Amino acid sequence: MLLLAAAFGAAALPAVAAAAPGTAQAAATSAPVLVTAAQWQQMRSDGASYPVFAREQQRAERLVRGMLKAGIDVPVPKDKGGGYTHEQHKRNYQAIQAAGALYRLTGDKVYADYARDLLLGYAKLYPGLGAHPHGRGQIPGRLFWQTLNDSVWLVSAVQGYDAIRDSLSAADRATIDDKVFRPMADFLSSTPENFDKIHNHATWAVAAVGMTGYVLRDQTYVDKALNGSRRDGSAGFLKQVDQLFSPDGYYEEGPYYQRYALAPFILFANAVQRNEPQRGIFKRRDGVLLKAVDALVQSSYGGYFFPINDAILDKGLDTEELVAGIDIAYAQTGDARLLSVAQAQKRVLLSPEGLQVAQALAQDKAKPFAFVPTLLRDGPDGTEGALAILRMGGPDGQALVMKNTKQGMGHGHFDKLNWLFYDNGQRVVTDYGAARFLNIEAKAGGIYLPENNSWARQTIAHNTLVVNEQSHFGGDWKQGQALAPAPLLFAAGDDTQIASARMDGAYDGVSFTRTQVLLAHPALTEPVVLDLLRVTGGKAARYDLPLHFNGHIMDVGFKTQSAVANRPVLGKANGYQHVWIDAASEPTSQPRSLTWLLDGRFYTYRFASTAPSRALIGESGANDPSFNLRREPMLLQRVDGQAATTFYGVLEPHGQYDGTAETVRGANSRIDAIAHYRGQDADVLVLDLAGGKRVAVGIADEPNKPGSHEVSGGGHSWHWDGGWKRFDTGTGKDGK
Is 111 a catalytic residue? Predict the structure, then answer.
């Protein structure tokens, strides 16, 4: 999608259409409705004065001039994603959209003629098309191998068509209306298996049909888009707005798909606002669509989205879909924090909203976007889990992400109570995301690879509990969709932030509760992560707790047997077949440590369990003959033959390595020991720090309920009321 999205209803811009080219009758029936002629005229007059807007126009001109030179090419579809015909049809919709905008911004008829000729080419091609020869999914596309891409084509092309429609002869307009846009809208809206789903594919489809309805002045298309193919409100855009976002603006499939779905949600909402302002679409559900823009930005670190569920790691705040979201949200809210995101994106829409953002940036109105500790509830009522984001140290400081969300439909991974950790601008504790090389034809045509199911979605590929080498819910996402974690606690102070959640039903008869703390202390150079995972089951089992990390191992702080002659594989199924074992220890209940180096900073992970556990060091990539998987390190704690156990640990960033200056400082951990003590209904984790300081955190089994708690051990006792408490020895906070 090129950054030329439709834009409407900006309060600071004219809302009344000016006369369009052609006769008065043509203007009445074909004048632009997605961006009015008056708004185009204002952009034409003022756009060159604002550098970001001017650069965007130049970018569009380069695209279209290159396409003009190449000539009209509307090929018969035959290729998978990434193939020639796929990419050509993609270039064509970008060019139609760009040429329409350039015609309005420059008055040069060559752009309108080019868009017209491309569309007349589609008028010859499209009526004779059936299902794509490499069609994917239940409903194959026609121009593309999946219907989703056809919807994206229509969303983009109809914007360009709206801009030139009143410049066409009546005959050309009728030909394009009746042989391109109506047949495409009919195809999409007559497939309820796709059109009526509550899913991002359907969002693109309803946006395409609804925007086409406004341009063609066909209210039936608009009604279908808003209320479903039966026009009874059981499906459609309004239902999707109500069902796919939580009250906090979190999108059910996770940030990666929130990024993708945001474009049709925001673009079509703008179309509704422009043409039917009485609906108050941006006020629906307390402004949830605008909240979704803010939630998506919060769900990022270092410019990249948290890669949970089927996510590709290189998608971030500069993605084209979010450019549309930022510009339109700013026009609706005037929130200057959004301008700092636009500043980093260095792009705007060629739209009234884009002009507003460009003006505000030129006037230095941007304010920093505040990345703050945030709990994003999941589910339409906010009652189906949550994404807990703990932060310290600013945008490039520490971010702890605890994934206590619901399944995320078919794109969800089996990773309840998974976690990620960022520090120093880097991914430290990692999530694999999706096994996919988007649109790279050599890798299965750019679709999800077989290893997405055999590795990336399996529980062992994540940082959470695995029972008896089986993935959560037996690897059945529909079963997982019915059960969500229960958030128990979220609190964020200056030096202590904490989140807790419980998962029941991922395994029969097994319940596990995880609490994580982001904690700062003067004796530590950086905040650290405390992790407590308590599991109870009805019978003896194998409990595995993996940690996937990024960096080069510096020190293994426990005795191991290395597998250097042969490299055994961890298991036979459920992702275990993709892990090589490089070293393993004997079982013990004593704390151990592992230190690695990443981008000049050291990370020491101290870990233990209340029952004897083995520690295994491994790497992903086994049983991968096509080299589809990334080779990444992991640490695995394994407890065998227990019905219940508690895993606990602390991850500490420390020190600095400067390869240029050949200097090392702080390479040794400033934590001397970690200990765990159990009371009747609570746990205490204790850190002994360098210099004799001690910090302890008490955590109740039911931290969301009131009550008094007491834990004793190691010659100490801790008492507190409520779900949790921090105790610092020697600073006036000691809990004795």
Answer: no
